[in-house]
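Last lecture ended with a question: if I hand you only a sequence, what can you say about the shape of the protein? Today we answer it with a concrete record. The protein is Esterase PIR7B. Below, first the input exactly as provided, then the predicted structure, then a couple of comments.
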Amino acid sequence: MEEENKKHFILVHGMCHGAWCWYKLVTLLRSAGQRVTALDLAASGVHPKCLEELRSFSDYSAPLMEAMTTIPSGERVVLVGHSYGGYGIALAAEKFPEKVSVAVFVSAAMPSISAPISTIEQEDLMLATMLVRPGIRFQDDPTSGYMVTKENYGSVSRVFIMCKEDLCLGEDFRRWMIAESPGVEVKEMEAADHMVMLSKPKELCNLLLEIANKYE
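The predicted structure:
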C-alpha cells in the first residue's frame, strides 16, 4: 500500500487492560497495510509505573498525550478508545483536534460537551464503570467535570460503535451518551460483546477501515 493511503490508528485500551488486548486487531490492521500504535497507559500493561504513583487522570493518560505530541504537523490519526479508554481519546481530541481525523468510541465512555457523565444516576454510573475503573479515584476524575469543549473536541468527527451484546456498559447508558452527543455517527455490531477486539476482531477491523476511509 502506498504511504499516502495508509492510515495511522492509535489504539487506547480500557482500565485494567493494556496494549496486549489489541493484539488480534493490530495484526489485522497491519496486514491490511495500515500503521498502528497500541499504547500502554500509565500503570497498565507493561508500563513501569505503579497505580499508587498516579495522582490524576492526566498522569494516567500521559503516554497517549506524549504520543500525540510526536505526530507531525499536517498528519492526522484515527483515535480508537475502548471502554474507559474513551476518556483518553476525548482528552487527546480536546488537546490536539488538528491531529485527529476521527475519534472512534468502541463501546466506550464518550464525554459530552453539554453534560458530564456524573449527571446520570450514581447507581447506573457504577454499573456502567465498575469493571473498568481504577482502584483509586483520580483528583481530576473525568466523569465529574467538563473535560472537553465545543471548540476543540466538538470540532472532531466522532463515531460510536455499539456492541449489541455488551453486558458491561448497559444499553441505556450507551444510548444516553449518544443522545448527549449530537452529530455522533453510530455503527452497530451484531453479536459483539464488550471485548469486541477479541471476540470479533475481523469485523471490527473491517468497520474501522470503513470509518477511516470515510473520515480522511
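Comments.
1. The mean pLDDT is 84.
2. Helices lie at 23-31, 57-60, 62-69, 85-95, 122-129, 171-179, 196-199, 201-214.
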